[in-house]
Amino acid sequence: MARVLLDSPLPQLDRLFDYAVPPDLDADAQPGVRVKVPLRSAGRMIDGFVVERAWSEPSQRPLSELDSVISPVPVLPGGLYELARKVADRAAGSASDVLRLAVPKRMVRAEKSWLLREPPTAPVVAPEVVRAAEDVLDAFPTLRPGLTDRERMALDAPPRPVVIGEGRTVGAWAVLVAAAAAVTLAAGRSVVIVVPDHRDQEQVVSALEGKLPVDAVVPVDARQSGPARYAAYLRTLSDAPCVVVGNRSAVYAPVAALGLVVIWDDGDPLLAEPLSPGVHARDAALVRQELEASALLILGHTRTTDVERLVGLGWLRDVPARRRQSPRVVLTATSDAPTQARIPSSAFAAVREALASGPVLVQVARPGYAPVVVCSSCRHPARCVHCTGPLRVRGHGRAPECGWCGRGIAGWVCPHCSATEMRLASSGSERTADELGRAFPNTRVILADRDHALLRVDARPALVVATRGAEPVADGGYRAVLLLDGDRMLLAEDLRITESCLRWWSNAAALAAPGSPVMLTGVAGAVARALATWTQPAYARSELAERAPLKMPPTVRVAVVEGTRPAVDGALSALARDVHELTADAVVGPVPIPSDDVPRVRALVRFDYAHGRAVAQTLRASVVAEAVAGRRSRAKGRAAVAARNTLRVRVDVPDPDL
After folding, report:
1. pLDDT recorded at residue 50
2. Environment class of residue 345 by beta-carbon count within 10 Å: exposed (0-12), middle (13-18) or buried (19+)?
3. Exposure letters 76-96 (e unless 16+ CB within 10 A, then b)
4. CA distance linking residue 306 with residue 609, whole number of Å
5. Average pLDDT value for the chain
6. Cα-trace Rg, the chain
7. Which of 39, 570, 605, 629 is deepest in the core (most CB within 10 A)?
8. Residue 262 CB: number of other CB atoms within 10 A?
């Protein structure tokens, strides 16, 4: 008998099904292989994974037989299934949804090519590489013992660039991560390094070049072709230890003898999985560390409130540096003069001085030319007369157009004051580059945003205008960093906006050469002081203290329950019946939400971490019950009653407004 997990999004199928194994498939149908099985209730074939083989007693109702083995390669190790199961249960989701993120689709040619190769051998790390890596780790006296003892650790990364081999510059954090990986691999254990995007991945891979064998470093990311990604996955399945460097799904890489999991910059929203069940890479790493008893290192230039909560509980150990390092941050106030509204005179002079020796980074809030257009008289935002979308200007001298439907606007009249003229209310990256180009003639101006992707710039003088998160690395570091539009960034309606702003500014400040000025304009208060004094953990603690009385995440967990009114009411009633520990103010809502077909509502459920298992199990049971009821209604022809996906649940949403 084979116990099979079906590859299906239906919640009622999220369990193991027993199938008989015909004699001709007995040799190939081993745990971990892909198979096709009949789904009796639907009368069709469906893919699945053999999770385990077992012996069953004969019964009056015979089991259905496996239809075929798709591939004899076991791509689902037992440890990966156990991780997917625990992660899914914690998030009230399906294990098959987690495995869909972790196990890439089969590529026949890549698989055949891999099977023809010789199995990879255990990598050998040169002794001089290990000694150099240990010297890097010794900047944090308790880090190396923590790696040896496989502890859970949080670390504030050194905020400076470092020049490595062949004159390439990377962040000091990448050198530190590479050193931890080299020491762990030399001890015969694998490493999984999870970074937000390809920019960070490129820095880590550059820091590893020349230190580890080429076949021991396995990059994994969404930019890879299907065959390349599948070949990388097959490499992680081998018994030879390796170092995996990839984005959020890399946290599930089924490497042999896991010794260390690294999460870099866990506050980046790219590490939050948008697909069901929506598990953050940090949370998956915490679950995996418990299962496999590996070391866990979470580091960044800022400390998120989620990590600081775990440090306060003692679940993560803070790793202090032997010598504290911080960039030279200067807080500057903007002028009221129209011509100097964005850049104070002191910052302007500092930029001019820095341009004499190298590149200067200018961080802005938004891409484009003028993302916001307002009425010149009453200052109300200008809206499209066709679809009410916001108007924008895409270039110098161009007419405003709608940001939604893309139509040009002619004969616009303000509905509030009947004025007919508009003015540009904001400056995007392109307009800022245009203005700075006129202010600093004969100076290179380089644009880096979503439409102008750039990883690196050379050490020649230049003004590099970049949106937050798109800043390229400069050879030798920037000679000055100017942070604009901070006041506009802080106006966003987001629970974590101050955390996000501090992270954006800190990451940009870490690109400055040692001793170079970092100027933050137009921002005051606690978040500005935290940047100036480089005390991000203290700021995270203060944020936690403010959120605790309000019961806002991460001091509590939050689940979003969305669906038709009867489905949501039923789920909330089940919570009240089965989870007695919930307080009277645990449920917020339900409130109506926009919907194209059946009216839908949304409710928030706030609960303590200690009650997480009970809440997740109850909500999951409600999802399954609603799905089964919907299927029965469709079978009886009541299509109007049985709308698809009548109940959706997501646990640990990063922002309750989502």
Report:
1. 94
2. exposed
3. bbeebbbbbbbbbbbbbbbbb
4. 12
5. 89
6. 27
7. 605
8. 26
Structure confidence at residue 338 (pLDDT)? 44
Task: Kindly give, in sequence order, each residue whose CB lies less than 8 Å from that of residue 108, ignoring residues fewer than 6 positions away.
Answer: none
Q: What six digits make up the tokens of 498?
A: 């101050």
**Residue 492, phi then psi, degrees to nearest 5:** -65, 140
What angle separates helix 526-533 from helix 497-509, to the nearest 10 degrees? 30
**Interval 77-86 mean pLDDT:** 95
CA–CA separation, 158 and 291 (whole Å): 30
Burial class (CB in 10 A: 0-12, 13-18, 19+), 169: buried
In this predicted model, which residue has the larger pLDDT, 227 or 339?
227
Q: Where are the alpha helices (DSSP H) in 340-379?
A: 345-354
Q: Is the per-residue pLDDT at 336 higher than 50?
A: no
Residue type, 642: A
CA atoms within 13 A on the CB side of 229: 18
Residue 551 to residue 584: CA distance in whole angstroms: 13
Element (H, E) at 198: helix 198-208
Q: Does residue 24 sit in helix, strand or coil?
A: helix
> Sorting pLDDT into bands at 50, 70 and 90, what band is 339?
very low
Going by their DSSP bridges, the two strands 258-264 and 190-194 should be labelled as parallel
The residue count of the chain comes to 658
Name the amino acid, one letter, at 363. Q
Q: Give pLDDT tens digits for 360-373.
A: 999 998 888 887 88
At 111-159, the pLDDT tens digits run: 999 988 888 999 999 999 999 999 999 999 999 999 999 999 999 999 9
Decide if pLDDT at 639 tops 60. Answer: no
Q: Cα–Cα distance between 84 and 97 in angstroms, integer?
A: 9
- Measured in degrees and rounded to the nearest 5, phi and psi for residue 546 equal -75, -30
pLDDT at 634: 55
First to last CA, the chain: 44
Contact, 52 vs 3, CB < 8 A? yes
H-assigned helices in 18-171: 78-90, 95-102, 108-116, 127-137, 143-148
Residue range 347-393, pLDDT digits in tens: 889 999 999 999 999 999 888 888 788 888 888 888 888 788 888 88
Helix, strand, coil percentages in the chain from 3-state DSSP, rounded to 5: 35, 25, 40
> Residue 591: in which H helix or E strand, if any?
strand 587-593
